[in-house]
Design goal:
This protein has 407 residues and is α+β, with helices and mostly antiparallel strands. The strands form 2 sheets. Strands 1, 2, 3, 4, 5, 6, 7, 8, 9, 12, 13 and 14 form a 12-stranded mixed β-sheet that branches. Strands 10-11 form a two-stranded antiparallel ribbon.
Length: 407
């Protein structure tokens, strides 16, 4: 009963100074919001990354001119690297032989039209070969895939993603229809089963044509081909990767002492890069939160010291009628902890809402970071105890006679 009464008195005291208490709570909430918001978004992005990287396919890796993730101007460091041309990519595929499945790709954004319907300019016009579907974990829903003969002859045919099929052909079978994209007409020979979105981008918004046709229409200058390689099994993955590096160095004409003039990345390497980026973001967020929480803790101490001064006479009355030093200490300590925990709750709510809002902008699933929320509340409780201890001790140490004389 004593503890319940202490808690009731704490809430009554805080509610008597609503504005002051609200400002202190807000300061605490800002510190918690910054870290919870960032970690909520990162946790959602990590979950999306694990599923979204399946686009590389099982046991797959990719070779390209520039790194997959680069935060500086890529031309400054990698601009002297030669393009991966079609002859280079074809020679690489010949050297790989039957040891792996090799796919070649080029992509540019181009709108596709059919009659009076059209897609956005962001629709991917992909130049590729007969291994496109296998290397991208895609399946034909209707019609057929691009064939080796289509690529060799540069035929004006295409397969389309589900988004394009829904936009251009909502009431007719797309197979056999003729659409226009990149200034050329293409006959649809197949539609691809829907794959969904990854990091806010649709994986179904594309038109895929033979890579030879793509180069003939859009030109070969400044075109560097991305090469996807898929090993037959996980057991052979490392061996295929080593063979691919050797084959690529051979077709590029590199000497043994020369560095690779291409980049190779796998799902694991992308995940490692993502972890490094999120670690740096987390450290920055922790620094900001620490400063904000320190300022909030000083605010808690300040409001409690003001409260002790304003309630000196009340403390003297309570002591004169039998309240012990530990009762006064506990009351003021509880007030400080309540202020901190309320601020923590508000900060967690704001952080989760803010993090999930940012996630929704990128079509990332919403989550609730239970571990971080609990940690945030524990930190806030600790701040309340640390910064509230001195004001509480000061209140508990007041001489009752002097306190009663206070005006």
């Amino acid at each position: 009963m004593i503890y319940l009464e202490t808690l009731r008195l704490a809430f009554a005291s805080l509610s008597a100074n609503k504005l002051r208490s609200a400002l202190t709570v807000f300061g605490m909430a800002i510190g918690v919001f910054s870290i919870i918001g960032v970690m909520t978004f990162i946790a959602g992005a990590k979950a999306q990354l694990d599923s979204g990287l399946s686009r590389l396919g099982t046991n797959s890796f990719q070779i390209q001119r520039f790194p997959a993730i680069n935060f500086s101007n890529p031309w400054r460091k990698y601009g002297n690297r030669p393009q991966i041309t079609l002859p280079v990519a074809q020679r690489f595929r010949d050297l790989m032989g039957d040891s792996a499945l090799v796919n070649m790709q080029l992509k540019r954004g181009r709108a596709a039209t059919y009659l009076d319907r059209h897609t956005t300019p962001a629709t991917g016009l992909i130049g590729t070969d007969e291994n496109f579907l296998s290397s991208s974990n895609l399946e034909i829903a209707n019609g057929r895939n691009l064939g080796a003969e289509d690529v060799a002859l540069g035929r004006a045919v295409c397969i389309i993603g589900d988004d394009v099929a829904q936009k251009l052909f909502p009431d007719v079978d797309p197979v056999g229809q003729v659409l226009r994209t990149g200034g050329q007409m293409y006959t649809v020979i197949g539609t691809v089963a829907p794959k969904g979105t990854a990091f806010g981008q649709s994986q179904d918004d594309f038109v895929a044509i033979p890579i030879t046709r793509w180069l003939a229409v859009l030109g070969r200058a400044w075109r560097s081909i991305d090469i996807k390689v898929q090993a037959p099994s996980q057991a052979e993955f490392l061996a295929v990767q080593d063979k691919a590096v050797g084959a690529m160095r051979q077709v590029r004409g590199l000497d043994p002492e020369d560095d690779n003039d291409f980049d190779l990345f796998t799902n694991d390497s992308l995940i490692d890069t993502f972890k490094k980026v999120t670690t740096m973001v987390s450290i920055g967020s922790f620094g900001i939160s620490a400063i904000a929480l320190l300022a909030a803790g000083v605010g808690v101490m300040n409001i409690m010291l003001v409260s002790v001064t304003e309630r000196t006479k009340e403390i003297g009355v309570r002591k004169s009628i039998g309240a012990r030093k530990k009762n006064i200490l506990l009351q003021f300590l509880v007030e400080a902890v309540v202020l901190s925990l309320v601020g923590g709750l508000v900060g967690v709510a704001m952080g989760v809402a803010g993090g999930n809002w940012a996630s929704s902008m990128m079509n990332i699933d919403s989550i609730f970071p239970w571990g971080w929320a609990v940690a945030g509340m524990l930190v806030c409780g600790g701040i309340g105890v640390i910064f509230g201890l001195y004001p509480a001790w000061k209140a508990a140490s007041l001489d009752p006679i002097e306190a009663l004389r206070h005006e």
